[in-house]
Write a structure and sequence with these properties.
Layout: E1 2-13, H1 20-26, E2 28-45, E3 54-57, E4 61-64, H2 73-81, E5 88-94, H3 104-119, H4 126-140, H5 148-155, E6 158-163, E7 169-174, H6 179-185, E8 188-192, H7 199-210, H8 214-232, H9 238-255, H10 262-273, E9 278-281, E10 289-293, H11 299-305, E11 310-313, E12 322-325
Parallel strand pairs: 3-5
Antiparallel strand pairs: 1-2, 1-12, 2-5, 2-6, 3-4, 6-7, 8-10, 8-11, 9-10
């Protein structure tokens, strides 16, 4: 049995610029990190005497007979892409709920590709795994997704990812034990809005507005570059970093009306009043997790004031997708 462990991610800056519709013309940059919350996928060959060709266990259970179509779109696409003919039994579990802005769909795709890689000894690099995941999600499934989630899930760590034209990208891994990144890690709190949503629908609408909002996107890119300099510099200013996140959230919120809603606005406002230096809604918008930056000494007060929500401090993951049992 093969078990993959693939991290979810939080994004700080540059969301939207990782879409080919934008970066193939203007270039893009995102700052994101994987966290110590994971997607687990176990796979093993399923012998024909069990009576099913595939057995798939996620939020539903599929017992697939020969020639039947797999309903789970990501599993179906990955199995077809790699031309999987032998029976597979698959089980999926996650530390956080899906459809909440933490890149869970891409973590699933990356983790499944990693399992297939080890079952069939394909010896795929982390870049190849992320490239295949991007191709499957964008070109086979035709989802309106960017490229940062697949890269983050595959590589892991705290990264500045630069996107060039012709779908090229460069992953610049930052030292996860540096003073600035440890300071940032100790300030992070995830708060769940209680709303799950299908991000592909929101992203599809948002993509229609990206080029119409060129000046807003360029302003967000400028903030991303400023944040990148702070992270790489010696004098990291957590308060300034928080204010930059607050500013980029305002700009993201202006891109399209369904990015936020009254409930999310109320949670965000309460978080700031409870001592957060800044924050942003993760993912496409409409629901999911809100990431707040809270000075370590104020964290207990913040959590007490936000006690009607499920909130949790997080740490960074440095490994990306990996096999934990083989």
């Amino acid at each position: 049995m093969i078990i993959s462990k693939t991290p979810f991610r939080v994004s700080f800056f540059g969301g939207g610029s990782d879409h080919p519709i934008w970066f193939n013309e203007y270039g893009g940059r995102v700052i994101s990190a994987t966290i110590n919350k994971y997607c687990y996928i176990s796979c093993r060959n399923l012998k024909p005497f069990f009576g099913n060709h595939h057995r798939l266990v996620y939020s539903k259970i599929e017992n697939i007979k020969p020639n039947q179509t797999i309903k789970h779109h990501s599993i179906r696409a990955v199995f077809n892409f790699f031309k999987i003919k032998e029976g597979i039994e698959l089980h999926h579990d996650g530390d956080l709920p899906a459809r909440t802005g933490i890149g869970s769909s891409s973590s699933f795709t990356v983790g499944l590709i990693n399992c297939i890689d080890h079952i069939y000894n394909l010896k795929l690099s982390k870049k190849k795994i992320s490239d295949y995941a991007i191709h499957i999600e964008q070109n086979i499934l035709r989802e309106s997704v960017g490229c940062q989630d697949q890269i983050a899930a595959s590589y892991g760590g705290f990264n500045i990812i630069d996107f060039k034209s012709k779908n090229k990208y460069i992953v610049k891994k930052q030292n996860i034990n540096s003073k600035s990144i440890l300071s940032l890690q100790n300030s992070l709190v995830l708060c769940f809005s209680g709303i799950t949503r299908i991000s592909n629908k929101i992203e599809k609408k948002k993509l229609e507005y990206i080029k119409r909002n060129k000046m807003t996107m360029l302003e967000m890119s400028s903030i991303t570059n400023e944040a990148a300099k702070m992270i790489k510099g010696e004098n990291f200013d957590l308060k300034l970093f928080g204010s930059l996140m607050k500013e980029t959230w305002k700009l993201k919120n202006s891109l399209y009306q369904t990015v936020s809603n009254h409930k999310i606005d109320d949670i965000y406002s309460k978080g700031i009043k409870s001592g957060a230096l800044g924050g942003k809604l993760l993912g496409a918008g409409g629901g999911g997790f809100i990431l707040f930056i809270v000075e370590n000494e104020k964290k207990n007060y913040f959590l007490k004031k936000m006690n009607k929500l499920i909130c949790t401090p997080i740490n960074f993951d440095s490994h990306g997708t990996k096999i934990i049992k083989c």
